[in-house]
Recover the amino acids of this structure.
């Protein structure tokens, strides 16, 4: 596949245009005088205008009223779902012309960079909830194309809870905090949600994804995106294909473990936000390849599931993902509210060449998203906000309304007209033409029989998981259903998921105090889809974050050479010590610690390094904080490395006897269960490379006791 970084690029007029358009609304307030919103300079802003120093405030104080009114109204209603989000700017380039399948112009010329804005989000929690809660993640992308804005409104899971959008209020009401006490926040672990689950078997498949590690991503940069619904590509000849959209992160798909996710929620609730912000600021630009699954119309009914059913995915082994382009996020926002909070996505924002299907979830979304923006953003003119404004010119007869910014010229605001020669007039040649699908049927409130297989793909997903992924799903059931106070619902959960897999249902019952199933359930699905297992993802060390635990008397060479090796591999390093400030090595060289054990924690890093130096090792061994830091990293199956006397410190932790067996004083690098050590050598080159390999693995699950692994 062509590397677009190496192609000779044409001037990126469109990308620059969007940047400049936004900058046109950007104001630098340095060295300026305070004014009202009308530009009137103010003499004071500390005291209201009163009748006497201790008298009442006067109604004529226009500055007070303007300042207070703006304050009273400076929060817009948060989104009902996806309230907590974080965005970034970037660009998209296709790898090759997709003319055979679609006439969408932004998918034709590999030399053109199409500007994009992406908003990542959690679904259930409020704007004030934590980043690392167990939840579906939104992955919405706005393409500012020459044909107008195209919104690919995706999630990090390829399916959804329900078949039909009419039930969307019900699923959201059930999973939101319970109305009588507004508890719990940003969590599905409560009665009303699980009552809805056991009452709605079509949720079974999505519950498997939600309780998998996909629901607690390590980073937005390490998260897949899926269009969920079935769309169409339509080419210039009017020929259509069914498609599914995929975003594939070039860093692979990786997750937290549940214990980490919970602790991070308390120690760093903005963990995923800060990760994205910092990565872009450091030039570690997140990259995602865009892929499509393409299906001929004549193959619509060739599968054992309905391709329009949003609770089902198309296994990649049956319908391969064709990679067609790459998106790079390279610029942070300048103002969170003006950009991330005011951005308005809508799956109905399409361009010629992309069309809809009769997916009943998609059909409902086409109404709901627009309706939501009207109340959130105060009226019909939200498209004029800078972040939402297309690069393509706007010409129509829509006028007035709240917050109108365009100054429309002329007396005409209707069509047809003769005064302006019917301008603006339709463009039959280049305008959007809906795909002419034949529709025939009686008006009914019903569901297709082809949508009523609730468990087959849930079993397929379970069969596709590795042992450790299965164990994590079981533990997630234990936590989520364990929080349910109604014993009847707990038992119904066990009985429901016996239809997925009997062993799964039995394991759920053990952890929630329910009765195991008396009959063997499940179904005849024996196939698996390796593509959905995160164990089969890309594994690289690039952009990972490593904590160096350092105290006075450290070995300067151990630290600096290892640090350089990691930085050369694109790995970030932070020095953690008992106190923030300058540290002195055993040969009196200085290094500065930027974090202490109060300002950071083991769960915020991907790996840990302990250098040599006798004084340093002894100090670490006498600190409970450093011991806990390493023990927790080991518990969470992260890479750990140590050199020279630092190994003596490791031998006093829980790693002793588990991962240090066989380590000799030979100067060789020893790697055992993701723990990398070396003694008595001045050459740390091989050591650094082994550590990088261990970091790239993400987790070293072999540390888990074999008894903890899932049987069967």
């Amino acid at each position: 596949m062509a590397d677009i970084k190496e192609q000779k690029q044409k001037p990126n007029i469109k990308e620059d245009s969007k940047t400049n358009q936004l900058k046109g609304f950007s104001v630098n307030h340095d060295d300026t005088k305070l004014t009202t919103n009308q530009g009137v300079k103010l003499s004071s802003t500390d005291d209201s205008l009163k009748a006497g120093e201790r008298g009442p405030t006067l109604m004529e104080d226009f500055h007070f009223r303007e300042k207070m009114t703006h304050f009273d109204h400076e929060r817009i209603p948060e989104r009902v779902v996806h309230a907590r989000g974080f965005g970034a700017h970037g660009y998209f380039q296709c790898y090759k012309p997709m003319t055979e399948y679609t006439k969408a112009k932004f998918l034709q010329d590999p030399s053109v960079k199409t500007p994009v804005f992406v908003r990542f989000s959690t679904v259930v929690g409020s704007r004030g909830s934590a980043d690392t809660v167990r939840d579906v993640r939104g992955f919405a992308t706005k393409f500012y194309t020459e044909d107008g804005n195209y919104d690919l409104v995706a999630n990090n899971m390829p399916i959804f809870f329900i078949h039909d959008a009419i039930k969307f209020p019900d699923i959201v009401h059930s999973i939101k905090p319970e109305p009588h006490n507004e508890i719990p926040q940003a969590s599905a672990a409560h009665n009303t949600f699980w009552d809805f689950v056991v009452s709605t078997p079509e949720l079974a498949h999505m519950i498997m994804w939600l309780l998998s590690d996909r629901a607690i991503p390590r980073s937005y940069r390490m998260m897949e995106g899926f269009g969920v619904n079935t769309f169409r590509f339509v080419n210039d000849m009017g020929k259509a294909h069914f498609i599914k959209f995929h975003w594939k992160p070039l860093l692979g798909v990786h997750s937290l473990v549940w214990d980490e996710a919970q602790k991070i929620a308390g120690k760093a609730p903005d963990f995923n936000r800060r990760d994205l912000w910092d990565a872009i600021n450091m030039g570690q630009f997140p990259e995602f390849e865009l892929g499509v699954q393409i299906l001929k119309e004549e193959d619509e009914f060739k599968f054992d599931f309905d391709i329009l059913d949003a609770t089902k995915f198309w296994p990649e082994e049956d319908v391969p993902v064709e990679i067609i382009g790459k998106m790079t996020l390279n610029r942070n926002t300048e103002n969170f509210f003006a950009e991330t909070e005011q951005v308005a996505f809508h799956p109905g924002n399409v361009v010629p060449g992309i069309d809809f299907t009769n997916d009943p979830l998609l059909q409902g979304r086409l109404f709901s998203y627009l309706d939501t923006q009207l109340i959130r953003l105060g009226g019909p003119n939200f498209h004029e906000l800078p972040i939402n404004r297309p690069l393509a010119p706007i010409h129509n007869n829509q006028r007035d309304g709240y917050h109108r910014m365009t100054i429309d010229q002329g007396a005409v605001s209707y069509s047809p007209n003769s005064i302006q020669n019917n301008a603006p007039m339709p463009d039959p040649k280049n305008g959007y033409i809906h795909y002419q699908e034949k529709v025939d049927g009686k008006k009914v409130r019903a569901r297709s029989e082809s949508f009523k297989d609730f468990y087959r793909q849930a079993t397929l997903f379970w069969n596709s998981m590795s042992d450790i992924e299965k164990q994590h799903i079981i533990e997630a059931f234990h936590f989520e259903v364990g929080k349910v106070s109604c014993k009847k619902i707990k038992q119904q959960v066990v009985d429901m998921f016996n239809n997925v897999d009997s062993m799964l249902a039995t394991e759920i019952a053990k952890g929630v105090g329910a009765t195991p199933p008396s009959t063997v359930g499940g179904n005849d699905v024996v196939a698996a889809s390796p593509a959905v297992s995160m164990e089969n993802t890309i594994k690289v060390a690039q952009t990972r974050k490593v904590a160096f635990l350092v105290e006075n008397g450290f070995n300067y060479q151990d630290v600096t050479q290892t640090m350089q090796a990691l930085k050369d591999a694109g790995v970030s390093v932070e020095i953690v010590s008992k106190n923030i400030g300058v540290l002195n090595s055993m040969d009196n060289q200085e290094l500065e610690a930027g974090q202490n054990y109060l300002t950071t924690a083991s769960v915020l890093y991907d790996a840990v390094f302990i250098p040599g130096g006798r004084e340093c090792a002894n100090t670490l061994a006498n600190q409970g904080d450093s011991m806990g830091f390493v023990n927790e990293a080991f518990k969470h199956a992260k890479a750990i490395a140590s050199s020279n006397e630092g190994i003596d410190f490791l031998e006093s932790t829980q790693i002793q006897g588990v991962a240090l067996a066989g380590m000799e004083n030979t100067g060789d690098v020893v790697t055992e269960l993701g723990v990398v050590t070396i003694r008595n050598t001045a050459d740390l080159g091989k050591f650094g490379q082994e550590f990088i390999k261990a970091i790239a693995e993400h987790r070293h699950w072999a540390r888990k006791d074999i008894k903890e692994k899932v049987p069967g």
User: Anything to note?
Assistant: The radius of gyration is 29 Å.
